[in-house]
């Protein structure tokens, strides 16, 4: 049975950045915020908020995003409680998994305000996962345990 060994909750203070473009609003590079679940078999990026859940893209969308941000984040985290990894993965269509056996390498990078994992998956583009700086040491230990020789 798969076991969750560490949860790194997103520490963002708001939804993904939105920018004005002409008469409407568009999302920046990030469309979602994720809590990261490390299991003994894979990494699961579970959506806690997605801009896809906003009803329309206009000036009101930015206000709608801020209003929904905290509510959805708290609701999603409540849904995660007591769930198995497979159930967590399927709670939102934008959630995704990175099985350890497909990971070629992973780099842990500290940034000024946060940190991220750069994960190389065989046959795919590199994936960047924002992680909280407060969990950096714990995340490195888990990765070294389950991905020996692949952590850079």
Notable traits:
globular, alpha+beta, 152 residues, 3 helices
Please explain how this structure is put together:
This protein is an alpha+beta fold and 152 residues long. Helix content is 25%, strand content 36%. A hairpin with a 2-residue loop joins strand 4 (32-39) and strand 5 (42-50). The protein starts with a strand and ends in a 6-residue tail after the last helix.
Model regions low in confidence, pLDDT < 50 over at least 5 residues: 19-29
According to DSSP, the number of beta strands is: 9
- Supply the number of helical segments: 3
The computed structural class is alpha+beta
Strand content: 35-45%
Q: What pattern of helices and strands is seen along the backbone?
A: EEEEEHHEEEEH
Report, as a whole number of angstroms, the end-to-end distance. Answer: 29 Å
Largest sheet: 4 strands, antiparallel
Largest beta sheet: strand ordering: 1-4-5-6
What portion of residues is helical? 25-40%
Given the C-alpha coordinates, what overall shape results?
A: globular
Average pLDDT, all residues:
84
Radius of gyration, in angstroms, nearest whole number? 16 Å
Q: Could you outline the blueprint of secondary structure elements for this entry?
A:
Layout: E1 4-8, E2 18-21, E3 24-27, E4 32-39, E5 42-50, H1 59-80, H2 85-89, E6 96-99, E7 103-110, E8 115-121, E9 127-131, H3 136-146
Antiparallel strand pairs: 1-4, 2-3, 4-5, 5-6, 7-8, 8-9
Summary of the model, kept short:
This protein has 152 residues and is α+β, with helices and mostly antiparallel strands. The protein is 25% helix and 36% strand.
């Amino acid at each position: 049975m798969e076991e969750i060994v560490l949860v790194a909750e997103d520490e963002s203070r708001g939804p993904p950045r939105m920018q004005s473009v002409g008469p409407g609003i568009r999302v920046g590079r990030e469309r979602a915020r994720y809590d990261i679940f490390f299991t003994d078999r894979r990494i699961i990026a579970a959506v806690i908020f997605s801009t896809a859940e906003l009803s329309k893209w206009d000036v009101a969308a930015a206000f709608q995003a801020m209003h929904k941000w905290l509510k959805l984040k708290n609701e999603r985290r409540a849904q995660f409680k007591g769930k198995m990894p497979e159930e967590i993965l399927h709670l939102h269509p934008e959630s995704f998994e990175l099985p350890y056996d497909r990971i070629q390498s992973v780099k842990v990078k500290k940034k000024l305000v946060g940190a991220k994992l750069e994960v190389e998956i065989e046959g795919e583009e590199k994936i960047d996962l924002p992680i909280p700086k407060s969990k950096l040491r714990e995340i490195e230990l888990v990765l070294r345990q389950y991905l020996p020789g692949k952590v850079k």
